[in-house]
Amino acid sequence: MKPAPFRYHRPSTLDEAVRCMAELDDARPLAGGQSLMAMMNFRYVTPQHVVDLNRIPELAGIETTADGAIRIGAMTRQRDVKDSPLLRERCPLLAEALQWVGHVQTRNRGTLGGSLAHLDPAAELPGVLHALDAVLEVRGPDGARDVPMSEWTLAYMTPALEPGELLTAVRLHPWPPGHGHGFHELARRHGDFALAGAAALVHLEAGVVSRAAIALVGVDDGPLRLPAAEALLTGHAPDPQRIAAAADAAVEVPGIDDVHASAAYRRKIAVVMTRRALTDAAARASSVVPASVGPASLPRGERRIAPPPSPAGGSVSG
Ligand code: FAD
Questions:
Q1: Integer Cα distance of 51 and 33 in angstroms
Q2: How far is the CA of 142 from the centre of ligand 1 (A)?
Q3: Which of 77, 141, 230, 315 is the S-S candidate for 22 at Cβ 3.0 to 4.6 Å?
Q4: CA-CA distance, 175 to 67, in Å (whole number)?
Q5: Which residue's C-alpha comes closest to atom 1 of ligand 1?
Q6: Distance of alpha carbon 183 from alpha carbon 185, whole angstroms
Q7: Which atom of ligand 1 is nearest to the CA of 110?
């Protein structure tokens, strides 16, 4: 298939891109093209205008801000986010989750902003940024504004972008040094979108959880936090019983019924992935070697394909 006819625009500054998006009817921004081009080729979307963001230097890059946040430009390639020494040190959850986003080839072109704007319900990056309470910077004809990640998903694949607005950057405040992180997902094949996945962060003080964050992907229109589970952990030692009780809270999520899995199956997977992600996060927070996820904890009938070498943690492909 080939896309319907469209006019191509290639602004070289953000101001020019914003002007393009404001003046053109039916325009779509092009980032890495890893989702948009496929959707255009299948004619799921037939924009009259495509505004290419790839030649706007100010939209890419990773920097620390005066208040200690880390700011990542929307056009920063997923590969660069994954390989960033600063992010690996201050926010290792991102690097861990990114190894399950598509393939090396798609990460070389795909961008952070594209993944957030595309907002596939099973996309890992929106889930991780939800766990991190990230803030998204948006720019449009009416100026600039910030959108908390908690308000980003309006509906299925519908981010909180007004007509003509562009996502320009993401800001996140890394957790204190010594926090633990974990990310686990179940996908039918490595590189597929997850059936369900869980991102977890845990901070301990004197062996007791002082802060926890859990975000699920693949179980609702957008990423979901589990506040009840987070509260259950806070103030207690993260022993296996407490972690299992917190993970059981994932069974309350809506789940998604589609050709790949039923909502009930996704809910079951979400519980298992949450338990694994929390186990890794708690082990790392107390800086012991991450608890390995033994075969015993795999749902019956599931194969385990060793994931590629990763900082730690991992995913299970059925
Ligand atoms: P594009 O495809 O260029 O754009 C995506 C959408 O966002 C378009 O509607 C576009 O108009 C809009 N957009 C882009 N940038 C902006 C912006 N700055 N402001 C406003 N709107 C914008 N993703 C996963 O999360 N997990 C996976 O496992 C996964 N597996 C994949 C496997 C394959 C084989 C492929 C091809 C893709 C896979 N993806 C996966 C998707 C991939 O991560 C894409 O990179 C991502 O979904 C979109 O990023 P992009 O930069 O390519 O955006």
A1: 11
A2: 25
A3: 141
A4: 13
A5: 33
A6: 7
A7: 45
